[in-house]
Amino acid sequence: MLRAAPDSGEKRTRGRTVVAAAIAVLQAAVLCAQPKNQYIVGPNDVLSITVVDQPQVTGKYIVREDGTFTLPLLGRLQAGGLSVQAVEDDVRDRLAKGYLKNPQVGVSVDQFRSQQIFVMGEVRQPGSLQFTGSMTIIEALARAGATTDRAGNEAVIVRQADGAPPPDAAAIQRAQTSNSSDVVRVDLQKLQAGNLGLNVQLRSGDTIFVPRAETIFVSGNVRSAGEYTIRQGTTVRQALALAGGVSERGSTRRIQIIRKVDGAETTINANLQDLVRPGDTIVVRERFF
């Protein structure tokens, strides 16, 4: 039984499904390699402390604004600015000095509250995420529900100084064309294809921005008129291919590009080798005979 070929919308949807699956697979792969206990504790984090056979000490403790928490037997201890491993070692050493012989201590973070990253732009659930100390861009995008159908091929990571608020829309727009070391660009297509070298390790305060894909419109005598995403260097020929090609009544010698130049709409007679620009409308006119 013959099946109809999928239209461009079905292809894009199927492609996004493959991308989402790729993110999930890659996320599972990188989570196994994440270092443990390197999270830097901060105010409002909740620590879970276990001391074997010592129920009066075992429990959950909130880190105060000054970075300290109070533990039975030991009193107030410093946690802010230390790794989880450092806090565990400190508690063990103090208990061993006059309280317990060879204490078995375990410290983990029950609730991450002090550090965040931000995911904005073309993701399904934009907003802030609790930073767990070892998070990659794949994990962050997965937590944000993956990218939308309108997402471009690149993600921009904007790095802020410690304690600085997340960048506003103007700062993100500047970052997209910046060469600063505080801006990291990630090719999402290569990442989703399995290039884990692009799976950037995030830092507390990072903002991930996924821009909307650049698009053009194709109309006139083509098989599937509509809006299509493009990459830099796309030609008229490639744009027409996205629209299913020229119809029987169309002419490849009668192609026009409607383009805004300095705010004014301009009509350009085009050939198949011409490059298109974001926002262009390509019109394929009817052949004479």
Plain-language structure description:
- By secondary structure, the chain is α+β, with helices and mostly antiparallel strands.
- It folds into three domains: 46-111, wza like fold (2-Layer Sandwich); 115-210, Outer membrane lipoprotein wza fold like; 215-286, Roll (Outer membrane lipoprotein wza fold like), CATH 3.10.560.
- Helices cover 22% and strands 29% of the residues.
- It contains six helices and 15 strands.
- The chain has helices spanning 8-31, 84-96, 137-143, 169-175, 188-192, 236-242; strands at 46-51, 59-62, 68-71, 75-78, 105-111, 116-121, 127-130, 154-158, 183-187, 207-210, 215-220, 226-229, 250-261, 264-270, 281-286.
- The strands form four sheets. It has a five-stranded mixed sheet with strand order 7-6-10-8-9. A five-stranded mixed sheet has the order 12-11-15-13-14, with helices on one face. A three-stranded antiparallel sheet has the order 2-1-5, with helices on one face.
- Strand 3 (68-71) and strand 4 form a beta hairpin.
- Helix 1 packs across helix 3.
- The model is unreliable at 1-6, 8-21 and 24-34 (pLDDT under 50).
